[in-house]
Specification:
Shape: globular
Distance between the termini: 68 Å
Mean pLDDT: 89
Strand content: 15-25%
Number of strands: 25
Radius of gyration: 28 Å
Largest sheet: 8 strands, mixed
Length: 560
């Protein structure tokens, strides 16, 4: 069907992905019906290798900005950065209440405090199986197992029917905290009829079932007794279950815990305050105590598992940490997945750790990490439990979405009821029909330092150009009345050639510029733009012909 099949007088349910469909991260979904808008999640994405200098990538909320008065709230499925990380930026423009479980909002509040927004935003804590009314929407939070505590799927009741939005999930039969994915509530909705299922596609390419988080604890229990020196476990600071298992095994083997990294210290503090993490004060140590304990008494839980340049673990690996020095016999456990794009960085990190004399365990050589996302058999179970009329895969690159639809067809959902949507597609539901009816403007906004949105693709292209070919600055002084050359040309290069060893080449470049200026008449030399254009063209041809390089050429004309 198409947009014409929807009567102009009707008000269908519309689902609009603003991020997270066709990419990993940046998860943000808008639901629109009856004049009301509900937002689910508000995540960021860490920069890809070609996004030089960018700190974060957040969704473009232009469509929401134009409808800000109709947004009733933001419901959060869990506390991972790809689902909550964009909130400090988005909430500066959309002052709406946030709804989430206790730990999720604990993480959010810490983030808002950094941006001095904690007193301006309303945070509403909900419990699993609790519902909230937001305009024409009723949202029930349903427990799901994931790699972060307090994750929830959302059952969204709308005038058109119920939509199940899974968030990130897996079906862990032996979760560390005993909190199972709430299949009973999902079945309850299935019995009444579910209009659409929006389900996590991240692990759709993996066959079978995802291993339980308890396997990681068992791996720790096997590794720890064999370690003669200090143990450093690097993990995501939001992985509270992982931290608890490290603590339990370390304490059982007579080791005290040192927390290392700002976000690790903050998240452990929040989780302890809310009762999600059990560590006695006597089992924690201060950095000042490190030198007074023997190596076999120490376990450090640190951030930096992705090899981030300024992270605590990278500084340790580079022997650049003031208090923590690796010694032969120490063990480092990288207990996290490799985020796509970080493979080389992590490989270098492991090499540096070995250079310091440490033994390193990571997911390729030991079961020190398991995924928090459902594999194929769990995804099938979710589809069969919910039995939706329509299916929309979410959370994943384009191939993941396609594969998830193929999986849905295997369990009996007809092709015409599987909707392959990507960011910006408007999926409309009305009178038991559904279709993509239009495409809105959506995209990515780059955060660079304190600047939000002031760096676009053109700037990134220039940065890439500079990084690959360097820059040449040509300084020329010209009499603005006569056009006569008064100064220069001086040529300065950065990242192009090594000036001390290339003086002859740069002198030839200077001659090329002089020749280009001689070809201009007096009137043209009085026009700085004409001079710049002539210099660029002449040097561009010369550099390409002589050494096949394309540096950024920046003429600086001083009119005297």
């Amino acid at each position: 069907m198409n947009d014409n099949d929807f009567n102009e007088n009707t008000d269908p349910l519309r689902i609009i992905p603003l991020g997270g469909l066709g990419e990993i991260g940046l998860n943000m979904m808008a639901y629109e019906c009856g004049g009301d808008i509900l937002i689910v999640d508000c995540g960021l994405m860490f920069p890809e290798p070609d996004m030089l200098g960018i700190d974060y990538v957040i969704p473009d909320i232009g469509w929401l900005r134009e409808r800000a008065g109709r947004v009733r709230g933001i419901c959060l499925t869990h506390g991972h950065e790809d689902h909550i990380g964009a909130l400090p930026f988005v909430l500066q423009e959309l002052n709406v209440p946030l709804f989430g479980t206790a730990l999720t909002l604990g993480f959010v509040n810490e983030k808002l405090r950094e941006y001095k927004l904690d007193d301006l935003v309303e945070l509403v804590t909900v419990r699993p199986r609790q519902s909230v009314d937001l305009g024409c929407f009723r949202v029930e939070f349903l427990r799901v197992a994931h790699s972060v505590v307090d994750g929830c799927a959302l059952a969204i009741t709308t005038p058109e029917g119920v939509v199940i939005h899974t968030g990130d999930f897996k079906i862990d039969q032996t979760p560390v905290d005993g909190q199972l994915t709430d299949l009973a509530s999902l079945s309850r909705y299935a019995e009444a009829g579910v209009l659409a299922l929006l389900s996590d596609s991240t692990n759709v390419e993996r066959e079978g079932f995802t291993l339980s988080e308890k396997y990681v604890g068992e791996a720790f229990a096997e590794i720890f007794p064999k370690c003669p020196g200090r143990i450093i476990v690097a993990a995501f600071s939001s992985s509270i279950h992982r931290v608890q298992q490290v603590v339990d095994v370390a304490v059982a083997h007579g080791r005290k815990i040192l927390l290392n990294g700002r976000s690790m210290i903050a998240n452990v503090r929040i989780a302890r305050q809310l009762g999600y993490l059990t560590i006695s004060d006597s089992d924690l140590m201060d950095l000042k105590e490190l030198g007074h304990l023997s190596p076999e008494q120490v376990c450090i839980i640190s951030t930096g598992s992705q090899g981030e340049p300024m992270s605590a673990l990278t500084r340790i690996a580079m022997d650049d940490h003031k208090q923590i020095k690796l010694e032969k016999g120490d063990t480092v456990i990288l207990s996290s997945r490799v985020i796509p794009g970080n493979e080389r960085t992590i490989s270098e990190l492991i090499n540096h750790l070995y250079r310091r004399g440490a033994e390193v365990f990571h997911e390729k050589v030991s079961e020190v990490h398991v995924s928090g996302h459902a594999s194929q058999e769990e995804l099938k179970l979710m589809l069969n439990t919910v039995r939706p009329r329509f299916f929309i895969p979410i959370h994943g690159e384009y191939r993941h979405l396609v594969k998830h639809i193929q999986l849905a067809r295997k369990v009996g959902i007809p092709e015409e009821r599987c909707i392959l949507a990507t960011n910006g597609d408007v999926v409309a539901f009305y009178a038991d029909t559904a279709a993509i009816v239009e495409k809105i403007d959506s995209g990515r906004v780059f955060v660079d330092g304190k600047g939000v949105g002031d760096v676009g693709n053109v700037v990134l292209k220039d940065r890439k150009h500079l990084s690959e070919d360097g820059m040449v600055v040509v300084i020329i002084g010209i009499n603005q009345s006569s056009g006569a050359l008064i100064y220069g040309p001086d040529i300065v290069s950065r990242g192009f050639v090594f000036e001390d060893e290339s003086q002859d080449y740069l002198e030839t470049s200077r001659a090329v510029v002089l020749e280009a200026l001689d070809e201009l008449n007096d009137e043209m030399r009085c026009d700085s733009e004409e001079v710049k254009q002539a210099v660029r063209q002449a040097l561009r041809r010369f550099f390409k012909k002589s050494i096949e390089r394309r540096p950024v050429i920046l003429p600086v004309i001083m009119e005297m």
